Amino acid sequence: MSQMIEDASAPQSRSEWLAAILAITIGLFVFYTSFFGSFETLIQRAIFVAMIIPLSVLLFPLGRGKTWRPVGAAIDFAMCAFVVASTSYIVVNFERIMTDLPFAEQIDIFLGFGTLLVILEMARRSASFIFPLIVGGVVVYAFFGESIPGAFGHRGFDTGYLTEVIFLSDRGLWGMLVSIASTTLAAFILFGALLLHTGAGQTFFDLSARAGGKSPGGAAKIATIASGLFGSISGSSVANIATTGNFTIPLMKSLRYPPRFAGGVEAVASTGGQLAPPIMGTAAFVMAELVGVNYWTIAAIAVLPAFLFYLGVFTTIHLIAKRTGLGAVSQSELPDWREALNWRRMSPIVAGIAGLAFGIYNGNSIQLTACYGMLGIIGAYTLATLTSGGNLKQVVFTLLRALEDGGKGVVIVGVLLVAAQVFVAIVNLTGVGVAVTSSILALADGNLILIAIIMAVVCLIAGMGLPTSAAYVLVAAVFAPVLIQQGLEPITVHLFVLYYAVLSVITPPVCVAVFVAATVAKTPWTGVASESLRLGVTAYAIPMLMLIYPGLLLQGGPASIVMAVLAGLGFTISVAAFFAGQPIFGRFSSLLWSVPAILLLFPIWPATISGFALVCIFWMISKRSSGAGLSQDVAYDT
């Protein structure tokens, strides 16, 4: 694992060297602005865009490996030069734009829409065609909305006005989401890169192995813990599967776990990392700005739902493993506790967390807090390396690779959030979000349960094929107001839509996380999708539980929180047992797990206590039945 993270191949070609240098420059820019503070609004954002576009072009060149690559190279160079020119124009004219609110001239129209096209093209290359198609669609909608009859029509906007919104203001290409990408989000991506490169990668994997490896289904539990830890930092389910999955899936297969099950475990665990505090991938930083609350508030209220997510996955794995004989990892293959907790490997993690704690206690900004964490990591790693026989050259090399990895990690999220900001600006400008809200409310006729179900389905569909941040921004901008109008807390609604936006990556048919896991597992994606849904079924219910039990998000008094915890635990275990096919006392008795699950959907004390008590009784009976040999099923087919 550490070899995978720390010893990636060194740059070979000229373009790889340029990409490495530019990525390190971005990493240094992020570190500098985190510590000393950001530049003026548009200047900070324009410089950020001026750096990420050339790097994205180097990472995703047009026509790579094709005979027409020289043509692609010329186009790439032209795009880079164009964006550097347009961002320089913004920096030079910063004061005029912010104070005079200038009318768009021909040069502004040319630079504005040209830059937007470059952004959409790079979003297509780095992610998929879906999101740039959506963003391009709403821009076209802004032009021709006056031709659309009914509630979705609007008065229409001319080219000059749209240029002023998109290019000559802090609402479009240089808007709030770009600020988040260039400051708080970039700082934590760099924090995560430093953490992984200084030894946390191997430590996470070793601790995961020791925590779950010896129990039934141990390899799957290792994958769940490790992928959850990595997924929270990486900010991408797909990237996480491509890294940790290359270790965990072969480990499971070597113990004769079915390939489809191995792929499903990795897909679900990596997806859950996007919802796990404290870092929560990247979307939590965006949510903090959209909702207008402190980031740490979001991290705190997300703890219980994330715990239930992984409790559901763990319980399902455990019960399936007990019933079908999925084995544990042998003692000889597990890392030694002393090595896993070696102070030289643990010190950067501890120092990084201590730095974050200091920043929080001191009341510093999120990016400065992340910077303190980075300084802690760098100091601890340097001391640990020099006192264990290493040299300064090794320290510098590791830190440069971390800066490079962090700079590259910022690119995809940065490009997508620039495009997402244009989407948000146009949605607010045209009022299409209000039209969507009115349509859904009319369809559901004020029924909150029906509205929530419609919203869940819409968010799952809207988020398909999109990275987490882009999916969340899309559904939050358009669909969150529907539930907020029903009197729900904005933070509850935004977590609700975030969950379904994240879960879209394991939801067929456009389940990109499943496709990647199936490729690593070398098995058809349909089987992996089926196992992902079975292992992650409780995750689909958690957002609904947030609406039913506000105490899951620490809302209400102590009684509300206690009721929510009991209901959440009971519901998660009963649903996991139901879908794991865990018998209670006979072949078809697993169906009885649905009884407490249904009871726990009613937020009243009699139902909560009865449902939780039934779960405890059924669990004890099923354990005794298992001990008597009544719950053993045939082994999983391989």
From TrEMBL:
A GO-annotated cellular component: plasma membrane
Keyword Cell membrane in record: yes
Subcellular location: Cell inner membrane
Chief place where the protein resides: membrane
Membrane topology: Multi-pass membrane protein
GO molecular function: transmembrane transporter activity
Residue span(s) of domain TRAP C4-dicarboxylate transport system permease DctM subunit: 116-552
Keyword Cell inner membrane carried by entry: yes
Alphabetical UniProt keywords: Cell inner membrane, Cell membrane, Membrane, Transmembrane, Transmembrane helix, Transport
Parts of the chain that traverse the membrane: 17-36, 42-62, 74-91, 103-122, 129-152, 172-196, 295-321, 368-390, 410-436, 448-464, 470-488, 495-521, 533-554, 561-585, 597-621
Function: Part of the tripartite ATP-independent periplasmic (TRAP) transport system.
Classification via PANTHER family: BLL3936 PROTEIN (PTHR43849)
Protein name in UniProt: Neu5Ac permease
Organism of this sequence: Thalassobacter stenotrophicus
Gene it is expressed from: siaT_12
